[in-house]
Design goal:
With 412 residues, the protein is of the alpha/beta class. It folds into two domains: 101 residues, Enolase-like, domain 1, CATH 3.30.390; 262 residues, TIM Barrel (Alpha-Beta Barrel). The protein is built from 13 helices and 20 strands. Strand 10, helix 9 and strand 11 form a beta-alpha-beta unit. Helix 2 runs antiparallel to helix 3. The chain is globular, with a radius of gyration of 21 Å. The termini are far apart. Bound molecules: 2-keto-3-deoxygluconate and magnesium ion. Magnesium ion (MG) binds next to loops.
């Protein structure tokens, strides 16, 4: 099982994806997701220029050794570009190992701890009527847990709202599924935290009145509040029994969560922009969060995220892996194998990819009755159709950003 080919494949079916494909001398192939939304080519360059030469001739069976070698030998550690590149190698090696063993990856990780993975989808609307329709639509598609985002009176365009205007080059793709503007410069959105804090509790009250107490509801604050504002929001949402409040403060300052925690029992989730176990060291030890939001794709792969989640399990902290459309089907499959195997699985974010993406990445994972399953194919269970991928060249895309009314740039 010597790696004799390593290809970095960029394709843009509904959005940009970066995939590493490894081939061994005995003909096995493995795929890894290296997609970093809005900064894709930085990872392509890291992989092609610096990692591929190190992979050729290596024994594909030595996953832990490859991880430690790529991490430690670079000297420059951590960061989203490095960790997405290492994640792609790690995933591809697990894929190869599964194929060599004739087993799905979750079996190699210890076997299934459950029959399926509870997943949540994204309901959204400019106003309550549109939001209710979106919640119903998600329930009709089988979702048993739903993230709720709405517009805020007085603000033009906010992250996560499906009916926000899309860009020409994004034609046919819902804004909440793909907020990155293709083929242009970043779109400017507006923000006002006080209006948001006044409005959101009224939205959750309306949703609870309409849909009852059982439905698990989630909300994403997208790093926009100060610690005291986040504490206020958590407290005001307590009557509506959220499954979690996500990214309530900017992720760089993990200590901020101490203050939030002192004031509210609303469960907290964070970590979609974290990339190593060290980002979690303090907040796990001090029990400042309830869910780990990291994706396999951005956190060094299955090998490293499993270490994060094993550490978190000592404190009854569960997984809530990031799963927007910018995680490719390969990254989603890796998340599902890991989620099925670990004991402390919490919930999986799941937004369906578009038809073009599904034609490029043939998947064996399944979605039924609100639950995902990675399937029984050996390896990760996703294959990439190179001809199909070749139809969609890379298109530069930028995520939007926010300014306050006085023109100050604010967290997006
Ligand atoms: O690339 C940015 C998106 O992945 C992010 O905005 C999605 O916040 C997100 C979520 O919770 O899925
Ligand atoms: Mg989020």
């Amino acid at each position: 099982m010597i790696i004799d080919k390593a290809e970095v494949i960029v394709t843009s079916p509904d959005r940009n994806f970066v995939t590493l494909k490894l081939t061994t001398d005995d003909g096995l192939t493995g795929l890894g997701d290296a997609t970093l939304n809005g900064r894709e080519l930085a990872v392509v360059s890291y992989l092609s220029e610096h990692v591929v030469p190190l992979l050729l001739g290596r024994d594909a069976s030595r996953i832990e050794d490859a991880w430690q070698f790529l991490y430690r030998s670079a000297y420059w550690r951590r960061g989203p570009v490095t960790m997405a590149a290492i994640a792609a190698v790690d995933m591809a090696l697990w894929d190869i190992k599964g194929k060599a063993a004739g087993m799905p990856v979750y079996q190699l990780l210890g076997g299934a701890s459950r029959s399926g993975l509870l997943a949540y989808g994204h309901a959204s609307g400019k106003d309550t009527d549109e939001l209710f329709d979106s919640v119903r639509e998600h329930q009709e598609h089988g979702y048993r847990a739903i993230r709720v985002q709405t517009g805020v009176p007085g603000l033009k365009s906010i992250y996560g709202i499906a009916s926000n205007a899309t860009y020409e080059a994004n034609a046919g793709v819902r804004y909440d599924h793909e907020p990155a503007q293709r083929g242009g410069l970043p779109n400017e959105e507006d923000w006002d935290t006080r209006s948001y804090l006044r409005h959101i509790p009224t939205v959750f009250e309306a949703v609870r009145n309409e849909f009852g107490p059982e439905l698990p509801l989630l909300h994403d604050g997208h790093h926009r509040m100060t610690p005291i504002q986040a504490a206020q929001l958590g407290k005001s949402l307590e009557p509506y029994d959220l499954f979690w409040l996500e990214d309530c403060t900017p992720a760089e300052n993990q200590e901020a969560l101490r203050l939030v925690r002192q004031h509210t029992t609303t469960p907290l989730a964070i970590g979609e922009i974290f990339n190593t176990v060290w980002d979690y060291q303090q907040i796990v030890r001090e029990q400042l969060i309830d869910y780990v939001r990291s994706a396999v794709t951005h956190t060094g792969g299955i090998t490293h995220l499993k270490k994060v989640l094993d550490y978190a399990s000592q404190y009854q902290i569960k997984s809530g892996m990031h799963g927007p459309t910018d995680i490719s089907p390969v990254g989603m499959a890796a998340a599902m194998h890991l989620g099925l195997a670990i004991h402390n699985f919490g919930i999986q974010e799941y937004m369906k990819h578009g038809e073009k993406t599904d034609a490029v990445f043939q998947q064996s994972y399944t979605w039924a009755d609100g639950f995902l399953h990675p399937g029984e194919q050996p390896g990760l269970g996703v294959e990439l159709d190179v001809d199909e991928a070749g139809k969609y060249p890379y298109i530069r895309a930028y995520l939007p950003y926010n300014r306050l009314a006085d023109g100050t740039v604010h967290d997006w």
